Every structure is written in C-alpha cells, then in structure tokens.
Amino acid sequence: MSTPTAPFHAKARLLHWLMAPLVVAMLFIGIGMLSTTESAYALLLAIHKPLGAAILVLVLLRIAVRLRHRPPPLPADLPPLQRRAAALSHWLLYALMLLMPLSGWAMLSAAGYPVTLLDGLQLPPIMPRDAALFATLRGAHHWLALLLFATFLLHLAAALFHGLVRRDGVLASMAPWRRRGRH
Known about the structure:
Elements: H1 10-34, H2 38-68, H3 80-111, E1 115-116, E2 122-123, H4 131-166, H5 170-174
Antiparallel strand pairs: 1-2
Helix pairs in contact: 1-2, 2-3, 3-4
Membrane topology: Multi-pass membrane protein
Organism: Luteimonas soli
Subcellular location: Cell membrane
C-alpha cells in the first residue's frame, strides 16, 4: 500500500460521474439498436442522437477541465509500465468519447439524415451526402464503439484494482463520496 493520492479537481469528478452513466447508457442503446424491431429502433435512435450530442459537449468540457486542472500524481511506487498504461488509456477514453459522437454525426450526415436534438433543433451536416462514405463511417462507428466498450471495461478493472487490491487512493481520488481532509 502506498501513500494515498490527492483528489481530482471537483469539476473533473463531477464531469466523470455525470458522463459515466451516459456513456454506459449509450453503449447499451447502441447494442439495442443493432438487435431490435423497427418501432423500438426509432425510439432508441431518438434517444441516441441527443444523448450523443450531450456527450460531445460534456467531453469537450471535460478535456478543457483536464487541461486546466492537471490530475493528481499517481502513487510513487506504481511501476512505470502501469503509469504509461494509465496515461494512454485515459487519453484513449477521451479520444473515443470525442470520436464516437463525431463519427455518428458524420455518418448520419453522409446518409442524408438530419441529426435532430430536442425541440426539433437540427445540427448542420458535417459530411457530404455519400453512400460509400456512410458505409465507411458506419463501420468505423461500430468498431469505435467496441473499442470504447473494451477500454471502459479496462478502466473499470484498473479502478477496482487500485481500490480493492492496491488500496493506494487512486480510486478514492475520483470518488464523489470522498471526505474533505481524508485521502
């Protein structure tokens, strides 16, 4: 067991715990969209589009907070390979949380479908209408989703490893239940 880690900035913790259930919901909605009937598909798609737009806005905020408020240092006794893996996996998560909504928006634009948010607000297309481009983007969106799901599971496993095995304060540093004065 090592010295407990300092907490993440409050804004970073808030955005983390706000986004975590949204990203998980999006992954399961996406899975549901692949294997459902037409009426349920329309409902899931109506949820998927604005939720994706919300995640895009939140991840941009999250990146800004991350750049403004550096995360706390990892425990000094953490092996260098694990340090590199932690840094790379966090930036991969950010990249995927950014790429998923952008690839979905681009895919729908290429298909000629509007991205309609709440109250009929439509986002402008970001790609030209092109069936081949749509097919490519659809495949990319699918594979990015699988990579996001795998990366999320590894992130969860690492958090549990730090919290239950190492007990080094890394999990607690992002915990919303963290008490002041305790590390």
